[in-house]
């Protein structure tokens, strides 16, 4: 066997990672629970806590909900037009406070 062909005889097994994607799992917004007091959507996390994402973050285009107890994340599938509309009274009060 010549030195040129030494690598032809070696077989290497490449381990496969446990996940096939680097992106977080997808979850539709309809599967999440909305908390109107906190203005936050929740979804159960395997660690026992829950993924959270604020409605304002969703309106700003953010789509990653995180679990505050572990490093897991999910990507939320949603359409901005389907989100609850902001209450006009809260916005008007905030504008009045700034104007004073």
Q: What percent strand?
A: 15-25%
Can you count the beta strands? Answer: 6
Order of neighbouring strands in the sheet with most strands: 1-6-5
Please work out how many helical segments DSSP would assign: 2
Secondary structure class reads alpha+beta
The radius of gyration over CA amounts to: 24 Å
Helix content: 10-25%
Distance between the termini: 88 Å
Rough outline: elongated
> What does the main sheet amount to?
3 strands, mixed
- Poorly predicted regions are 91-97
Q: Helix and strand string, N-terminal first?
A: EEEEHEEH
Mean pLDDT, rounded to whole units?
79
Walkthrough of the structure:
By secondary structure, this protein is of the alpha+beta class. Helix content is 17%, strand content 24%. It is built from 2 helices and 6 strands; from the N terminus they run ββββαββα. It has helices at residues 55-59, 88-99, and strands at residues 26-28, 33-35, 40-44, 50-54, 64-66, 73-77. A 3-stranded mixed sheet has the order 1-6-5, with no helix packed on it. It has a 3-stranded antiparallel sheet with strand order 2-3-4. A hairpin with a 6-residue loop joins strand 5 (64-66) and strand 6. It is elongated. The termini are far apart. The relative contact order is 0.16. Mean pLDDT is 79; it is low at 91-97.
């Amino acid at each position: 066997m010549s030195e040129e062909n030494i690598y032809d005889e070696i077989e290497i097994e490449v381990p496969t990672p446990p996940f096939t994607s680097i992106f977080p799992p997808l979850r539709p917004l309809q599967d999440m629970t909305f908390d109107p007091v906190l203005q936050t959507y929740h979804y159960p996390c395997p660690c026992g806590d829950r993924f959270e994402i604020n409605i304002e973050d969703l309106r700003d285009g953010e789509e990653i909900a995180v679990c505050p107890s572990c490093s897991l994340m999910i990507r939320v599938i949603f359409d901005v037009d389907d989100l609850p509309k902001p209450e006009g009274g809260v916005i008007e009060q905030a504008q009045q406070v700034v104007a004073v």
